[in-house]
Amino acid sequence: MIDFGFDKLALIGAVALIVIGPEKLPRVARTVGHFVGKAQRYVSDVKAEVNRSIELEELQKMKSQFESAARDVEQTVHREVNSASSSVASAWSEAGSALEGAGADSSAWTPAPPAYEPPRKNFRVKRAAVPRWFKQRAGVRTHVQSGAARVARFRPPRHGNQG
């Protein structure tokens, strides 16, 4: 930016006082200050936009790095799972051939257990997650009550004929 010292500002003020005059100088100074403030706000907005774009680029680079690392991990896991499943399959086939080769009785070998089946739920039975006593202690409403009924419930009792 332009470097203004105190001596240069004093010289500019003296020239402005002579050229513009003492009557119009405050209004001109106010207008100049207004335009300088606008210029500073514009420069700060441009700086903020540049910083945001730089941060966005950095975040996009970081995102691409994380995505590539995740892909590498996923590929490694798939390779390990495939190698483990192939080794288990080969060991299983070897064990099966050893049983057949030893002349073992086929009734002694038990098959694999059946596949998992999720439990059947009876959706007609209501299962509350929170016990009723806990709701009562916490003050949770368990049934709906009209506004008039709520007012009547909390109205103080009348004593005698004070009406």
UniProtKB/TrEMBL annotation:
It is a single-pass membrane protein. It is found in: Cell membrane; Membrane. Keywords: Cell inner membrane, Cell membrane, Membrane, Protein transport, Translocation, Transmembrane, Transmembrane helix, Transport. Residues 101-123, 139-163 are annotated as: Disordered. Residues 152-163 have a biased composition (Basic residues). It comes from the Bacteria. The keyword Iron-sulfur does not apply. InterPro entries: TatA/B/E, TatB. The keyword Transmembrane helix applies. Part of the twin-arginine translocation (Tat) system that transports large folded proteins containing a characteristic twin-arginine motif in their signal peptide across membranes. Together with TatC, TatB is part of a receptor directly interacting with Tat signal peptides. TatB may form an oligomeric binding site that transiently accommodates folded Tat precursor proteins before their translocation. Belongs to the TatB family. The Tat system comprises two distinct complexes: a TatABC complex, containing multiple copies of TatA, TatB and TatC subunits, and a separate TatA complex, containing only TatA subunits. Substrates initially bind to the TatABC complex, which probably triggers association of the separate TatA complex to form the active translocon. NCBIfam families: tatB (TIGR01410). PANTHER family: SEC-INDEPENDENT PROTEIN TRANSLOCASE PROTEIN TATA, CHLOROPLASTIC. This is Sec-independent protein translocase protein TatB. It comes from Ideonella margarita. The gene is tatB.
